[in-house]
Structures are given as structure tokens and as C-alpha cells.
Amino acid sequence: MNTFDDYDPNPPETDELEAHLQTKRMVVNLGPSHPAMHGTVRMRVELEGETIISADPEIGFLHRGFQKSCENVTWTQCLPYTDRLNYVSAIMNNFGFLKAVEKLLGIEIPERAKWIRVLASELHRMQDHLTCVGAIGLELGGFAPFLYGIQGRELIMDRVSELCGARLTTAYGRIGGLNRDLPEGWKEKCLKSLDKIRELCVEIDGLLTKNRIFVDRMRGTGVISAEDAIDFGFTGPCLRACGVNFDLRKAKPYWVYDQIDFDVPVGENGDNYDRYLMRIEELKQSDRIIRQCLEKMPEGPVMVDDWRVAFPPKSEVYGTIEGVIAQFKLVMEGVQVPAGELYDATEASNGELGWYIVSDGGGRPYKVHVRAPGFPILSGVPRIIEGKMLADLIPTFDTINMIGGEVEQ
Amino acid sequence: MSKFAIDKMAERISGAVIERYEDRTGAPWAVIDKDRIREVMQFLKTDSELQFRLFLSADGVDRLYLPDNDPRFEVVYFLRSLTRNEEIRLKVRVGGEHPEVPSVTPVFQGANWWERFVWDFYGIRFTGHPDLRRILLYEEFKGHPLRKDYPLRARQPLVPERPIQDLYRGPGTSGV
User: Fold this and answer.
1) Which residue of B53, B55, B146 is in closest CB contact with A68?
2) Mutate to test the interface with B, among A342, A353, A407, A409 (most CBs of B within 10 A)
3) What is the DSSP string of A5-69?
4) pLDDT in tens, A51-68
5) Testing the interface with B: which of A232, A244, A386 to mutate, by most B Cβ within 10 A?
6) pLDDT digits (tens, 9 = 90+) for A248-270
7) Which of A92, A104, A91, A87 has its CA nearest to residue A40?
């Protein structure tokens, strides 16, 4: 039996039971199935002790051939594929895609549809941020904030499922507007949910923002300078946390964002804590936007009255030959988008969601390129964490809020 | 719109802009000589008046079934200037069996993954790229799936499991 007296600090190689802490560099695989690797990313980290020497994110485990699938279905059928990109804020992907297609078609959607699009987008921005903030809490050891976050998310999911019938994969909206208007009594329910979510945000804020353990893990970790962030192509809250005030909703207002009063929070340090604060503040701003939308929204149609993109009313379909043919052509051939190409972008919850679409004039897309905000941000992660502690990787990975679906297409 | 930027670029780097046109929404596009793309990017990034410092994305287009498909491939680049609040759309045409375009990763770090993406899905090589590996697909994947002649339902052969290097299994095992 070994005692401390015959302890040999340099045991022979053959004695495996006496193995010591490795001093050589070690390669550790985080993921692909690891609770802190949201979705399915594999991080290959090279460690020296606890310091990260190099990190190599390996992505693609969730690759579903988004672009190839889109090229083989009609424009409208692409829509359900888009909500599987960022499945935490699916509606923003739907509407971003639709906005690009509508721009290529050259049609203007009705005023009410614009308001509802803003409203639904902001609901999902809140959902995305609640999930992100909750998950940060969870992975840094606080379970309660996660429960509050999920409770809020659940309320939003209920409201969204009343809008479009699905909780996660919304496929809300159609080319030329929306497939359905707000249901009866939805406005009051939404206001009630917002009040509840506001309370939950206060709870989360109170549990985390000034929590000593939380602040110690977050402040000063995962720092990226504004210059590097821009160079890597960061957008959204991650860029604004570095002190760069850029938000497409303000810089290039689309739909009705120019008629709404809201602020864009800007950080200064570019660390995990600032990225977290951006999200907490944006939750409040989204709340403001939704309340204004509910108040100012005009009455009217939600779909353009153009049979080349929208279904004719059922009375026309059953009663007139023009109606039948319009419906038939839309179903069988899809919306005919004129040949051309364009790049269009909206501000999604994690940054700029860009679409580059090419049409050859037929009913199917020739190419659909999506600039997922998480993709460039994830590519910047090695720069953020190299030379830092392994423990900093977890909050960094949380606050950049990488979503597997959009990054891996 | 970024007309001014393209004007200035065409003026400064003579011969770099091969063609200019506007898309359906009136946004200007510039087709760049592929051998000068890096020079153009460097200019756009560093020019004090333009400052296109945010690399948005890059992607390929396989023009096989489009009317003018020679050269066959295009690489499109989108940059944003935060100071001028506008984006610029650039395009490079490249053809041949093994298309090659100079990499812009030395200018923009953000281009790194996008170029790997284009290599992965279109088989366009970026010369001078520091780490040109496949990004979403695996190394053993045969072909480049976003090429239009890659069938939608093509199957891939099974590949053997890769050996894991550098794995320390801790004390007490047989050391396999």
C-alpha cells in the first residue's frame, strides 16, 4: 500500500495508476452533444492546463441542405424551411425571406400587414432573448432564471400559436402579406402576456444582473474589440456590445420601424456582461415596440389584392373561371418571380439576417443564400477565447447565442 | 446607394471593374476582375471616405442553367460601410474545371468561413486562404452539392470512422 513516504513525484511511465496531471498539451472535444454546446457544435480546444491555446469550432452536424432544398421547391414552399433556420425566432426568418422576395417582385404589402410583421418579429425577438438570457443563467449555475425565461417563452409561444397555429415552426406570412389576421381577442391576451413577461424580466434581471458570482464570470471575459468585431462581421447585439451603434431598424428602417419610438442599447466593453445587458435592455425595447404596434395598428386587409401572388377569394374560385385559373396556377406553378437578383437584409434577434436571392423567372428560386448572423459570429469565437481560460468558453458561447439551425443551414 | 463607392473604386483602380449594372431594385453591382479582387477589397476597406469594413457575406452562384453561363461560376461579395450606412455588391466571374479565385481572407477575417463555405459547396478554390477545408460537410464528401449538376437525391458512400488522435483515456486503461 502506498503511503506519502514513498510518493514518487516522477513515476515511471509504466505505472499508469500513478498518472499525474498531464503537463503536455491536451486536446479536448466539447460536443457535439454537450449541454453547453447549443445545438450541435463540436469545439476542438487545445489546452495547456486550463488555458486555451487554440480552438477550432467544427460545424455542420445539423446541416440539412437548406439551399439545395429551396432550389427544388416553389418560393412559397421555401417558407417552412426558413423557420428551421433560427428555430428560436422563426418568424423573423419567415418575414426576412418574404421581404426579399417581395422586393424582387416589386410589390408593396398592405399597411396592416407591415404592423403585424413588426409586432410578430418583436415578439420573437423577445422569445430569442429570453431563451438566451435564461440559458446563460442555467449554464452558469442558476436554474431559476432559466425557468423564468422559459415561462416567458412559453407565453410567447402560446400567443404565436394563436397567430399561426404552430409553436415552433411558424411559417407565418405569405408572399404579399400574411396568411391570416390577428384572431379575435388576441390583443388583450397579448397585453396580458406582456405584463407577465415584464414581471419575469424583472425577476431574471434581479437574479442575475447584480449577482456577484454571475458578474465575476461575465465581466471582462470573452472580450472582443470593436475593430475585431467589425472585421469578423459581427452584427446585432454582439456588435452593439462593443460600442458600435448600428441597428438596421434605425439605419435602414423597413416596414413601419420609422413610425415607432424605441431606443437601441449600446454597450462599451464588448465582453460577455455587455452582451448580456444588451439582451436585457432589448427585451424592454421590444416590449415598448409591441405595445405601440397594438395601439397604432390600422384596420384593413393583410394580403395584397393581386392574384399573381395571393389566392383569390373563395367565392371567386368557386364562381369564376379567372378565379379557378389563378388559384390553379398559384398552386401548381407557384408565384412567378421575375428574373433577377438582389441582396436584402433585416435585423434579426442576433444580427443582420441577409438574403441573396436569384430568380431565373420561374416559380422556383434559382439560388437562396442566407447570411445567418450567427455564422460570422461563431467564426470569431476562436479569436475571443484563445489564450483565455476554458471556463470562459461557456459564457462566451452563451452570449454570442449561436443557433445551430441557421449556422449550419 | 453605393454608386459613389463604385465610381471611386473604378477611378482609383483602373481596369478592375469589368462591368457595372443595376438590379431590379436599382442597387448597383460591380463585376470585378478576379485577379484584382483583393486589391479592390483592400481599397474599399481602408479608404477613409468609404470604409467598407464589415464583411457581410460571400457566396457562389452556379450559372449552369441561366442564359449567359460562360464563365460558369460567380462569387458574390457583400460589404457594409457603417459610416456611410450602405452596402456594396461585388461579383467575380470564374470558369473552368477547377475554378480558382484569390482569397480575400488576408483583408477581411470575416471572409474566412464564407470562403470555406463556397469551397465546400461549389468547389471554387480560394488561393492564399489560410485554412481551406470543408466547413459544413465532411472531408470524405464526394463532389460539391450546390453545383447544379449535383443531383438532389445523390447518395454518398459510407466512410470509415476516423481515428481519434491525441486522446488521453486516463489512468488504468490499456492505453488504447
Assistant:
1) B146
2) A342
3) TT--SS--TT-GGG-----S-EEEEE-SS-TTSTTT-EEEEEEETTEEEEEEEE--TT---HHHH
4) 888 888 888 888 888 999
5) A232
6) 888 888 888 989 999 999 988 88
7) A87
The answer to the question of residue B162 being in a domain is no
Quick one: what percent of chain A has pLDDT higher than 70?
Answer: 94
Q: Which residues form the domain of B42?
A: 3-127
Quick one: pLDDT at residue B168? 59
CATH number, domain of B52, equals: 3.30.460.80
For chain B, the domain total comes to 1
**Interchain pair A408, B136: CB under 8 A:** yes
Measured between CA atoms, how close is A27 to chain B, in angstroms?
Answer: 7
| Complex ipTM over 0.90 | no
- Dist. CA B93–CA B97, nearest whole Å: 14
Domain that residue A279 falls in:
66-407
Does residue B140 lie in a domain region? no
> Grid coordinates representing B57?
457575406
Q: Is the pLDDT of residue B76 over 90?
A: yes
Instruction: State the average pLDDT over residues B37-64.
Output: 88
Q: Which three cell numbers stand for residue A219?
A: 465581466
If one counts the domains in chain A, the total is 1
Contact B67, B43 (CB under 8 A): no
Residue B167: the pLDDT is 59
B38 part of a folded domain: yes
Provide the whole-model pTM.
0.88
Which of A231, A343, A360 lies nearest to residue B109, judging by beta carbons? A231
Domain with residue A134: its CATH number is 1.10.645.10
